Fold SH3 domain-containing protein.
Amino acid sequence: MLQRILLLIFLCGAIPVSGDAQQRPQALFDEANKLLSSGQNMEAVQRYQQLENQQNLSGALFLNLGIAYQRVDSLGKAKYYYLKSSQFEETATRAEQMLDYINKQFSHQSAILPKLPWDVATHWLQDNIGARTLLGAGLILFNMGILFFIARWFIRGLPRAVKTISFTIVGLAVAIMATAFYTQYVSNRYSVAVMVTEDAPVAETPREDASLVSQAFEGYTFTVDHKRSNAQPEWSYVRMSNGLYGWIPTKEIMIL
């Protein structure tokens, strides 16, 4: 029932367009919606993916892709697209509802370790503030601190506490800017990925005959370390949700 309600809502949705030159993406989106309504799920997926490849992205597009893949029992890909849809404000609530439902449908469930406090804080900063905003705030505070310090040279009678205040502001600014750089570093180095095939080994080294760390199943989520993975284009170095580290063939996962 929830799936039908969401489908009815988002079949009427629209992708961002501007001007007459952009009517084709909207027409393609409408065509895909009609195919999805008539049960031609993979044909709808093909149309939606054309829009995705053209970078005509929206929460509704990803939500409908998730619904289409769920209908053909490709639950890993459905989860991947629901996660992407949850990153858009207009579809976040509905995507989270679908994720709650689909996570209960997987035949294998992975143990999930709680995130470390600094990981939680970093992800919150990424999602709600962003590294650029942090850096801008840090630069403003840094300049304010310098101005307070210089003001002592030109304005007589300022209390001695102004010097302490200026150093405090500069110190806070440096801390904020350092946090901004770290947040950007984490964002560039790590990504979330979803297992989209039935099962695959997680190995100690990027070789097919390597010793196993664990076995992964459809729907498992990972944190991909791009820095370590770059040297092995066919493999990804991942952290599993249970805290184990290892290598998995890149073709088995989809990276957000």
